[in-house]
Amino acid sequence: MGEQPIFSTRAHVFQIDPATKRNWLPASKHAVAVSFFYDASRNVYRIISVGGTKAIINSTITPNMTFTKTSQKFGQWADSRANTVYGLGFSSESHLSKFAEKFAEFKEAARLAKEKSQEKTELSSTPSQVTSLVHAVACEQLW
Fold first, then answer.
1. Of 49, 64, 74, 133, which one's alpha carbon is 20 to 30 angstroms from that of 25?
2. 88-136: per-residue pLDDT in tens?
3. Start and end of every WH1 domain (predicted)?
């Protein structure tokens, strides 16, 4: 099935200047589509934005990410995997609020998905541990 877009908006995209870590560098000349995607096969949520022919945002949402509103129409989040900070400038406060709300929603979904996958890992390892334990007990009884 692949990735499916689950929410889209338009915003001006910025990235923090890697040299100064202070100044914003525009990643788009004008407002572009910024979309949340869900990949059912990998159970991950991503934020993707394409400017022209290249991806200007490709950020996998993790449970420890935080989207921060820094002004009435601007917000940002750090992506340690991409080693950058993304900034989004919106045309209105309501667009910023809606994006922040969706970010929080999908961050929570990512946290739950991570917990669920850890439970599956724990459960899938349990039968072999039980088999080993049963085998050890059986061997002990033979002695």
1. 64
2. 999 999 999 999 999 999 999 999 988 887 776 665 544 444 433 333 3
3. 1-110
Domain limits of the chain?
A: 3-128
Distance CA 85, CA 70 (A): 13
- Class assignment of domain 3-128? mainly beta
Residue 128 tokens, joined: 């072999």
Question: What would the two tokens of residue 113 be?
Answer: 């998905």
pLDDT digits over 4-21, tens only? Answer: 899 999 999 999 999 999
Q: How many residues does the chain have?
A: 143
- Alpha-carbon distance of 75 to 107, in angstroms, equals 16
DSSP one-letter string for 56-88: EEEEE--TT---EE-SSSEEEEEETTTTEEEEE
CA 111 to chain centre: 10
